[in-house]
Write a structure and sequence with these properties.
- The structure is a homodimer.
- The first copy, chain A, is mostly helical.
- In chain A, 74% of the residues lie in helices and 0% in strands.
- Chain A has nine helices and no strands.
- Chain A is elongated and about 60 Å long.
- The C terminus of chain A is likely disordered.
- The interface between A and B is large, with 53 and 53 residues.
Chain lengths: 203, 203
């Protein structure tokens, strides 16, 4: 009797194995053999789904990205504006050990996106999705009169994107500056810089 | 008559060739043979100075880092505080095509620093140097009563580091959002968020 195989589940399982190896050993050390061992699959099962290392990295990145995107939407729920933006940053920034670890996947993905046009395309799709969510929160903030009148929404999308991207680097490379206290202070300052309340702070 | 060789100059020349190849083809495509061709040296001349790809990447990164560090110090001259910080950001951010290109070297270096302890050590030395300079400018701003009283210098060092790092990513991966106008607006917002004048903006 043929075993019923859930291909989506197998792909996700392999992508997860790739993430674990990147966190433990780094992407340069990812081999098909190692992934097969980590995932508990035969060597051929891996290459059937993913023909090369690039497709494995892309799968690992998309899994990390989609999981954080879903988590943000769930946690935000009906929350709007700057409060929603805060929830987003709390999910993306290296608050918990696990999110600092997955930043390693992000760093490897960025480096390859800079080199491989197909990976850059995937990056563009995800960054468009992320920027769309940031735009939504900022527009809500503007509608609710939370946004400082001097803040231009499109420029602020860049500001928040730069903020999130910069923290991925710090999470991995200077973890001593990326503790919960530092990250909280940083999010507070970022949100304060966007809000109408900034002019009242400590004056 | 033996040719007099300036080893420092040869190393710098090779590091420059590596940077050119990273910009053109990406670090994954760097080979000893290609560097020899690019630099106009014999194959053996490269490996005499740099035993492996990691040492080549490190040399290319240090050249980029040291050049920008020297350029900042020269341009800052006697300028202090937030004005000096602005000059620094203008040098580090992707204003000119060339600075966006060298961000590719930075991205590759970060990814390897996350994987190789010796490269992480080099990164730590450079980040300590950079943070020291940011600290100096912020302390000057505090002494000159330019800094908003709610701003903590150590937290602000993180804020500026995150800002600079985040822009390296945008420069490479979303160049369409990294034009001079966007970058200028972003630096203005970052500086305004630190200064005493922020409470006066557009109220």
């Amino acid at each position: 009797m043929p075993k019923i195989v859930d291909h989506e589940e197998q792909r996700a399982h392999i992508a997860d194995a790739v993430t674990q190896i990147i966190i433990r050993d780094g992407f340069d050390h990812v081999t098909m053999r190692q992934i097969a061992t980590e995932a508990g699959y035969a060597h051929g099962a891996i290459s059937r789904y993913f023909p090369d290392k690039q497709s494995l990295l892309t799968a690992a990145f998309l899994q990390v990205f989609n999981a954080s995107h879903e988590r943000i939407l769930t946690l935000v729920g009906p929350t709007r504006g700057l409060s929603a933006l805060r929830i987003m940053s709390q999910q993306l920034l290296p608050f918990r050990e696990k999110s600092a670890e997955v930043s390693r996947v992000v760093l490897s993905f960025w480096d390859r996106a800079a080199q491989v046009p197909e990976i850059l395309e995937v990056h563009k799709r995800t960054i468009t999705q992320r920027r769309g969510l940031i735009r939504r929160f900022l527009q809500e903030a503007a509608e609710d009169n939370e946004l400082h009148p001097s803040v231009d929404v499109e420029e602020a999308i860049n500001r928040v994107s730069v903020f999130n991207a910069g923290w991925q680097m710090l999470a991995v490379l200077t973890p001593e500056d990326s503790t919960g206290r530092h990250v909280t202070a940083s999010i507070d300052a970022m949100i304060a810089g966007l809000g109408t309340e900034r002019s009242n702070s400590s004056d």
